[in-house]
Amino acid sequence: MALGARHRLDRGMTTLTPSASSPRSAVVTGGAGGIGRAIATRLVARGYAVVVSDIDEAAARRTAQELGAAAGVGHDVRDPEDHRRVLAAATAHAPLGVWVNNAGLGHDGTLASIDEGHVRALVEVNLLGVAWGSRVAVEAFGSGGGDLINIASLSALGPVPGLSVYAATKAAVVSLTTSLDTETPRSLHVHALCPDGVDTPLVAGMAADGQGRALVSSGGRLLTTDEVADAAVALIGTRRVVRTLPAWRGVMMRATDLAPSVLMRLEPLMRRQGTRAVRRHQRP
């Protein structure tokens, strides 16, 4: 079980899967539900000894048991030392092959309206949690290499009114990822996945009538956790640093970043479209 020399072509990208001769472990933070659980499911199927970590230890243990993962552990990503404890739990089974920084918060609101505690939590979990996890993973990979996957967001690539602090933390994650890719050996693959809105409790927890929720939903249907997990796992073994999902929304977001005034003209239309999508999603 874990990462070895067997290669497979997947959508034009070479991916690596574990082999019995060279077992590897994997860590998925925030893995008790949503995107994290879907990623952990796929890594278990690929033969990794997966450690599911989550702030809710009971949920992490339950998820690990249900998936057949190696372990489920409590994990506060705001604590640098907690990452080392989780790493030790993984390497007790096999050398580290994959680390997924998935844990995150989605507090919405404009900068003027968002609660101060929510601002601090967004920075500490979404940015510092990724930084501490990335540092521990890079140290553990060493010269043997591996894959570090940071779950960012499409909001990282352009202005998202109503999600300004959240978007800023995700933009920082993308910047951290691209810089880290140049700081590490080529045997270590660093990735940032930037999905559009996903049908998870994080999005559902945003104000239903808020500007942020409407813009997140303006692309049409929300992505499923399975779609995001498939895209994340497909990055393993590749040199792809940043991937957007879907690709066309990534192009659009980058365009608005270059010309924010264009977004301001389109924002009312996008908000109306997103509001209609939220209402459709809420219907029984």
UniProtKB/TrEMBL annotation:
The keyword Oxidoreductase applies. Transmembrane segments: none annotated. Residues 1-26 are annotated as: Disordered. GO terms for molecular function: oxidoreductase activity. Residues 14-24 have a biased composition (Polar residues). Belongs to the short-chain dehydrogenases/reductases (SDR) family. This is 3-ketoacyl-ACP reductase. It comes from Marmoricola endophyticus.
